[in-house]
Design goal:
The protein is built from 14 helices and 16 strands. The strands form 4 sheets. A 7-stranded mixed β-sheet has the order 4-12-11-10-9-5-8, with helices on both faces. A 4-stranded mixed β-sheet has the order 1-2-3-15. The protein has a 3-stranded antiparallel β-sheet with strand order 13-14-16. It is globular, with a radius of gyration of 21 Å. Strand 1 and strand 2 form a beta hairpin.
């Protein structure tokens, strides 16, 4: 079979490492070659060969309004015509910052950056500066961008101290990262207490999406808040996925927890490169030029990105956006569970709001250890079967799929009926 996507991938592989600009796009987890996307429209993407798919990737989260939402396209065009970047303050960025501060009570001040990686990297620097401590604690299976100190997970046997996930991360940096398991109350409490004297921050995806969706168990985030407060350690919520996704006030609003610092990305940029970190005023006022903690960016607060972000947040603020997202998410979960039953496929669905994961081969996923027991070979076959049915899913078992405001019940029904046909033939 030869397709335009295949041809493009061969050409891309000559000039781009692995043919992609971000590894998970290469489909290594499911096999085959990636689709090259030509365009998107509402709930659909079209590949380079002109085939149409119902999209549940949503560019990995940002596209809560679907592709090329008219309000976003219009805002981008309007701003682009006025200039794309100035490297000087603009009224628009004040408006977006004020919206973020209004939406998230824990965020008194916010700094706009260009990627989620930059947001978490900067939040960690600030946490270290504010506490005068060096260590950070993260959860195995949580992803916070490719920041050196966060590109670490437990190797077998290395239960509490970090080993780098990638060559190029200095061991000395990885050694400062303490690793624990998400939803492990005792292990987490013990690690925070053990390292308290030198622990600057606990960073967490309040609803992990990067090991597939794993909801926090009741009381887990509350425990993190209590233990970090006691240890004088800052609690950093990485809401790059969950911010404006699981509620207007993010996971912190949905679960009623007040972190010290918050990282945002994806939805806040409305599909353009934009992210942010913010939190308590006494902490944020340490950021340069208000304070000594250096942080900067040529394209930070880029006016075109900010315009797209504002248009997206306005659409989310008006009407019943989150009721609708929850309703669609609930429908997707219910229909996929029914398909698992009807096809007697071992599996389960984890969901918070409009982010969900269908795990195959495991019947309950509460932790990273549960997630990695999933049948990834079966998932690969499911992924390709769904693609042939015109459904575009994240190309890995360990990712979240998203429903958006561009989806209708009929698209969720198409998803379920495709899954029914695909899973009936394991
Ligand atoms: N934090 C989380 C929770 C993420 O999911 C991601 C990216 N998927 C990041 C941080 C990094 O964001 P970016 O890819 O924009 O650097």
């Amino acid at each position: 079979m030869s397709s335009e996507s295949e041809r493009l991938f061969a050409e891309a592989s000559r000039v781009i490492p692995g043919g992609v600009n971000s590894p998970v796009r290469s489909w290594r987890a499911v096999g085959g070659h990636p689709l090259f996307v030509a365009r998107g429209d509402g709930p659909y993407v079209y590949d380079a060969d002109g085939r149409r798919y119902v999209d549940f990737v949503a560019s990995w989260g940002p596209l809560v309004l679907g592709h090329a939402a008219p309000v976003v396209v219009e805002a981008i065009g309007r701003q682009a015509a006025l200039g794309t970047t100035f490297g000087a303050p603009t009224a628009l960025e004040v408006e977006l910052a004020a919206m973020l501060v209004e939406a998230l009570p824990s965020v008194e001040q916010v700094r706009l950056v260009s990627s989620g990686t930059e947001a978490t990297m900067s939040a960690l620097r600030l946490a270290r500066a504010a506490t005068g401590r060096d260590r950070v604690l993260k959860f195995v299976g949580c992803y916070h961008g490719h920041v050196d100190a966060l590109l670490v997970r437990a190797g077998s046997g290395a239960l509490t101290l970090g080993v780098p996930d990638s060559p190029g991360v200095p061991k000395g940096v990885a050694d400062l990262t303490v690793l624990v398991d998400f939803n492990d109350f005792d292990g987490t409490r013990a690690a925070i207490r053990r390292h308290a004297a030198d622990l600057a921050a606990v960073i967490v995806e309040p609803v992990p999406g990067n090991m597939g969706v794993v909801p926090p168990e009741a009381g887990f985030l509350e425990m993190l808040r209590e233990e970090t407060a006691r240890a004088g350690t800052l609690l950093v919520f990485d809401e790059v996925i969950t911010g404006f996704r699981v509620a207007w006030a993010g996971a912190q609003g949905r679960f009623g927890i007040t972190p010290d610092l918050t990282c945002l990305g994806k939805i806040v940029g409305g599909g353009m490169p934009l992210a942010a970190f913010g939190g308590r005023r006494d902490l944020m006022s340490m950021i340069a030029p208000a304070g000594p903690v250096y942080q900067a960016g040529t394209l930070s607060g880029n006016p075109v990105s900010v315009a797209a972000g504002i248009a997206t947040l306005r659409a989310l603020r008006s009407g019943d956006a989150y009721e609708r997202l929850d309703r669609l998410g609930t429908l997707a979960e219910r229909r996929l569970r029914a398909v698992l039953d009807e096809t007697t496929t071992p599996g389960t669905v984890n969901r918070v709001g409009s982010m969900l994961t269908l795990f195959l081969g495991v019947t309950a996923v509460h932790s990273y250890a549960d997630a990695v027991r999933a049948d990834t070979a079966r998932f690969g076959r499911y992924f390709h079967g769904m693609l042939a049915e015109g459904i575009y899913l994240p190309p890995s078992q360990f990712e979240a799929m998203f429903v958006s405001l561009a989806h209708e019940d009929e698209h969720v029904e198409q998803l379920a009926q495709a899954a029914q046909r695909v899973l009936a033939h394991p």
